[in-house]
């Protein structure tokens, strides 16, 4: 006589409906165990930092130009062919964002050894950016030898460059720009320690923005001439000295490759970007 399976024996079989209940209980137990493990993992795991903001410009030849550098030598973007160019827009008498941005670029270039890389710093202040002031600015940033070009000119000479790279320059009047530059000169004269080459990062914190809604927030189309709608000015000198700026990396063939906003700029990551472009043929 064949042995009966437990489920074939009416007396040994589980009550009707018991099997689904057991399965449900087992699933619930597994969920509790897995949930507990997940909770422990979530409590102890380190959340990865968000990726730094980048933007990819159209992969095309960067707009070329010819401007005079800090030594009066006519310089074009084509002159940098064969090197990786980090281009940005600055004014020399700024005492907050611009020195922070310049110091980050200079430090990244020191990290890669200064070979095969060059900074093109383009003026947004044709009034205050004199040859002496921009030379002093470069010296304070401690760029590697031959790795820094500060390009200046008249408003008419600089305007096509601003337009092609989407840059809004200073809105200050001539009188305001001259007064701000004179104030910066006086500051550096009274504080000679700031005139020395600075090899350490220049730390700048963006001031907190107001919690109230700017008056132009409900406009159908923001007025680009009304800089106040963006909130509190980030420059200590006020809205007339606000200007747009970012770092644009241009490869050895003169092709624009990567854009980095100021808020995402960091020497170590910039050095990695420079090395990656240097490694290309």
TrEMBL record:
Keyword Iron-sulfur carried by entry: no
An annotated Gene Ontology molecular function: metal ion binding
Disulfide bonds: 94-98
Residues that, per the record, bind Cu cation: 94, 98
Pfam families reported in the protein's UniProt record: SCO1-SenC
InterPro entries recorded: SCO1/SenC (IPR003782), Thioredoxin-like_sf (IPR036249)
Keywords linked to the UniProt accession: Copper, Disulfide bond, Metal-binding
Taxonomy, superkingdom: Bacteria
PANTHER family for this protein: ELECTRON TRANSPORT PROTIN SCO1/SENC FAMILY MEMBER, LINALOOL DEHYDRATASE_ISOMERASE DOMAIN-CONTAINING PROTEIN
Family: Belongs to the SCO1/2 family.
Protein name, per record: SCO family protein
Annotated source species: Solirubrobacter ginsenosidimutans
Organism taxonomic ancestry: Bacteria, Bacillati, Actinomycetota, Thermoleophilia, Solirubrobacterales
């Amino acid at each position: 006589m064949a042995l009966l399976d437990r489920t074939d024996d009416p007396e040994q079989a589980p009550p009707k409906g018991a099997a689904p209940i057991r399965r449900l209980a087992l699933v619930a137990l597994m969920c509790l165990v897995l949930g507990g493990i997940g909770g422990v993992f979530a409590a102890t795991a380190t959340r990865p930092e968000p990726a730094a903001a980048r933007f990819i410009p159209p992969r095309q030849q960067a707009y070329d130009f010819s401007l005079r550098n800090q030594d009066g030598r006519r310089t074009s973007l084509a002159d940098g062919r064969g090197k990786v160019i980090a281009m940005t827009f600055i004014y020399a008498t700024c005492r907050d964002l611009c020195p922070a941005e310049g110091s980050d670029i200079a430090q990244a270039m020191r990290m890669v050894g200064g070979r095969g890389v060059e900074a093109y710093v383009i003026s947004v202040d044709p009034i205050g950016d004199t040859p002496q002031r921009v030379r002093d600015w470069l010296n304070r940033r401690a760029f590697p030898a031959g790795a820094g070009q500060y390009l200046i000119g008249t408003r008419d000479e600089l305007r096509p460059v601003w337009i092609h790279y989407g840059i809004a320059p200073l809105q200050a009047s001539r009188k305001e720009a001259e007064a701000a530059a004179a104030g910066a000169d006086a500051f550096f004269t009274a504080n000679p320690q700031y005139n020395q080459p600075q090899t350490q990062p220049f730390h700048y914190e963006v001031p907190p923005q107001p919690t109230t809604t700017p008056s132009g927030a409900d406009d159908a189309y923001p007025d680009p001439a009304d800089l106040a709608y963006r909130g509190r000015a980030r420059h200590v000198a006020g809205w007339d000295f606000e200007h747009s700026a970012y770092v644009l990396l241009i490869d050895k063939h003169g092709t624009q490759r990567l854009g980095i906003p100021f808020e995402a700029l960091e020497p170590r990551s910039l050095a990695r970007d420079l090395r990656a472009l240097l490694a290309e043929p």
